[in-house]
Amino acid sequence: MNSATIAQQVRAVFDEIIAFLTSGIGKTYAKYAGYIVFATVIAIGLYFGQRQWIVYREQKAQYALSQILDNFADHQKNKDVDWDAFIRDVDDAYAQNVSSYLAPYFLNMKVEALLKQEKQKEALSILEDIVSLVDHSITGELLRTKKALLELDMGNIESGIAQLQKLAASEHNKVKDVAQFYLGRYYWISGKDEDAREVWEQLIEEQRVHRISPSPWMKEVKNLLETIA
The whole model's pTM is what? Predict the structure, then answer.
């Protein structure tokens, strides 16, 4: 329901209250009806006030996150980087924007900084928190894929593969081609050519049938399939 529809409904309720006040019954119970009008006006003010606050909160979070992203980009250009200081900045920004819808993405930047320091265990712990907070949007599923790949890097093979398999099979995952590519790549590196072929051919077929935009993995998948006897 959009704000215009809600505003129309609020106005309709308000008009009904005014009509009640001007009726015979309303005049008899004018004192109590006045309380209702007062409460309704307060409720309307709170509703629209909350909407304004949410807009302000999200704008503030967007600005803070953009600064963090800019700082991260600058840090990557330099050899001598104080990633601990960067992490403190991220922690401060996260604390100031913890109620924002963007809060999980501040944590993701902390993950990136920890990975730069090769602190994979700490990064994985935070990623686990992140994926419990995000929805199943494209960004959310990419973060789940990132967690699965990190587990593989850490040697948590069973867990990482199970997550990739789930992401690759999900009909609701709009970026399942990412999981399919990396799942097939793991099989290919592990010498499981038939498993790799099955996953990659599924990627190609689904891209042919359901493609909205071309998968960036298609060319590489086709080249890798040619290496499988």
Answer: 0.73
pLDDT reported for residue 169: 95
The mean of the pLDDT values for the chain is 82
Length of the chain: 229
Q: Which residue in 17, 12, 11 sits closest to 33, CA to CA? A: 17
* pLDDT over 50 at 25, yes or no: no
Would you say the C-alpha torsion 44, 46, 52, 55 has a positive or negative sign? negative
The per-residue b/e assignment along 14-50, b for 16 or more CB within 10 angstroms, e otherwise, is eeebeebbeeeebeeeeeebeeeeeeeeeebeeeeee
Domain-by-domain residue ranges, the chain?
Answer: 158-229
